[in-house]
Please model this.
Amino acid sequence: MTEIKRAKILKFNSEKCVGCLECEKACSQVHFKCDDGGEKSAIRIHEKDGNFQMHVCNQNGLCIDMCPVGAIERMPNGTVILNKNICVGCQACVAFCPLGAMKRSASRIEPFKCISCGACVRACPEDALELVEVDIGEIKQIVFNNYGGTNHG
Amino acid sequence: MVKGQFSWKDYDAGNTKHEWDLQKIHAAHKVLTEFKYDKNKIEKGFANKTLYINLTTNEIKEKPVTDDMKKKFTGGRGFGLKLLWDSIQPDTRWNSEENDLVITTGPLCGSTQYPGSGKSLCLTVSPSTNIVCDSNVGGYFGPYLKFCGYDALEIQGKAKEDVIIAIDGEASVIRIETAPLEEINTHLVSEQLTYMYSSKDDERSRQRVSVVSAGHGAENSYWGCLNFSFWDIRRKVARIKQAGRGGLGTVLRDKKIKGIVARVDKFTGVENAPENPEAAAKVGTKIQKEIRDLDRYQCNMRQVGTAHLVEIMDAYDLLPCENYRFGSFPKAPKIYSMKFFENFTRVIPDGCWHGCTMACAKTVDSFEVMTGPYKGHKVTVDGPEYETVGCGANMSLWDPKWIIEFNFYCDTYGIDTISSGTAIAYYMEMFEYGILNKERCGGLELAFGNFDAVMQFLHRMADGDTNEFIKVAAKGIRRVKDWLKSKNWGDHQLIEDTGMESKGLEYSEYVTKESLAMQGGYGLTLKGPQHDEAWLIFMDMVNNQIPTFKDKAEALHYFPMWRTWFGLNGLCKLPWNDVEPANNAETDEPSKVPEHLNNYVEYQNAVTGWNINKEELILQSERAYNWQRALNVWMGRGQRRDDWIPYRSMGPVTELEYVSRQERYDKQLAEIINKPLEEIEKMDVGKKVKLVYHHRQNQYQILSDAVYMRRGWTQNGVPTPVKMKQLGFGDEQKMLDFLAKKIQEDEENGLNDWGGVYSGSEEKPSKERRYWESW
Model:
């Protein structure tokens, strides 16, 4: 196998965001074919102390090892995807995601996540979002497997 | 060493590859029966049908699951009891034509959101105990059976030649096929059948097949277990979990079944069609997060599985060493969990069913087999778990590799590690005393610590060796006790007291000498001495939370009932208390883990749409529990004399044991006979052993009195008709009449009286002897 070295992840320019949530709606279109945003969006924008914050997957891939049926894989472009046709809905990835970025909507048992498709980037009227390339070695996390203790990597 | 985050396709376990001509093997099959069916859609956890197969007549039919059945028996093990009651007779034995082998699921079995939801409960009349034995097991077969459209599978009769039962949930067809060419031993046959019956030649399809099998050991002993496979797409191997206790695999092979195969190509996370999927997912994710955050500080299950217990048991003098003579041992650190962690392959997720993030199913990949027919092969070994390591301590095998080898062969030969390990430990002690010797053991030098002799014993047994010792020894401790006594080779009392069996079943791996409640937890049980009913040692011995007989009786009512509940639903017990909420110690009843109890109430309600509370949850269990006890009585057992336990589980049998913990026993004896310690210290050890012996035997009888009354049974341990009516069995006239008659007989035989001798401040549980009449 050839090792995948680079991944595209979302970068958020908080100062440009006005909180219109067009990104969330665009994401809902990708995953649920609707404009609901909110719990049906893999990207979430929250306001805190007058500033906007983005909450989304950073493609660190910890979920890959959690999946009992191999439904989560890193694609050649570095993005981590969950194949909902293979998923058996156990939520192990949801529970173990250190970022809370593996999402689940009440309308479907299979979780979903950011696939770095750029729909939100294109939808943002303020250019607050962009896709940037990072070195996977810097973001990669694996499921804790040492003998006790607190090491999470 | 793989460090994680890799594609499941890329890992190679490094095992020996097999070259089989599977087409030829498959072509040799002859279809004996084919049964096409309409697959029921699962509703709220139930497929609402059970499958009946008769191997003598090749009849296959379906039985309906009625609301009455759900009300009385809930599901899972409860359904198994119902099916057995309808099929067997009081004199049915393990190898009788009409004996049923039942594999059940339970309404929550097959859910993926709550950890530990893939258990099957298997029941049959046991060769070891001659009564119904239930044994729970993980792996994919139970969930797949239900996804195939059945809540339970019941197999009666015996095939004339080796057969496979293939349940194809995609085509909705069931076939009984002859299978002359397949292997018998599990690690091979489960792989062969998985390849043969998967819809496509790829890992994902193989993961949709599960096989139940046993091995040559099951054919030649009473220790046969059922191996349930779960194909590991990362290791690309059929991994296995065992329904170990009670010889179920022996029954499987007696029926000439080589394998039972279930296949479903497609299922979702809501295959159980829960009433409220959102609530089920919410409560499941909550506990998964607890496991994520707390397991590494609590049990470390995710890293070493149940082997984490070894060092704890050793520290508390509870690890059975040299046939339970000692509770700790200087060499024990050699087999602490860290030593197994070094051998385990850290490839995850390691759950035996999807969504179980407790992930206790550890493996050693590419293990090079050291002895026997597979010497030199590299294999994946599932385990060892705590119990198997405990057997190592019991046989004085202090090398992790030896224990892994023992584990591998027990698994592939299809025998229970617990029964075999405990029994061999007993034979070793008999060997030490000269009651057995090399000549009497068919040339085996069965001394403590002799790994070669242990393995030779297993290989010869699996090979069908006809040596007298091998044949008797393979039937377990109870038969060996009788055999030794018939030969008059040793002191009969010593032979009885040291062999760790009750009801004919071997003990699991805990020393119970200092916990009276746990002695009850092993003895006052349905199937025999297995810790799945109650594990009260810490509550009783370490934390002193249940000091009085009444307290202990309450615990021996509540916990067996509560733990029975998992088996009614198809659940694993581990996620209940092998991870606890961070604030559990501050709750009213930490030993019950109240938050998790509430989880289970929510979970069952979410799936079934019932509206039960935590009291009704116990009531579900109480129905099944009492029914099983009544069934035991009906089969001629299940009474006080059957709840007898060997003295080795109560106290020091030998002077060596007494001396090894002299300070403890002297102090206790000083209190018992009310004499100063200095005087006790000067007494003859043999005399002290006897005094402790009589005291502890009586304590156990007093405990039995209290427990029987708390459970609603007579002093002879028979469930009363009044109790059965209260539980909702008012219309089960045949059973009620039988119990009434039995209690009357006991009255005539003077059995309805207290078993304990009460003196001083000790009071009988009730002033009224026939206390149940006033209920």
About this structure: The longest strand of chain A covers residues 6-12. The CA atoms of residues 17 and 24 of chain A lie 13 Å apart. The two ends of chain A are 23 Å apart (CA to CA).
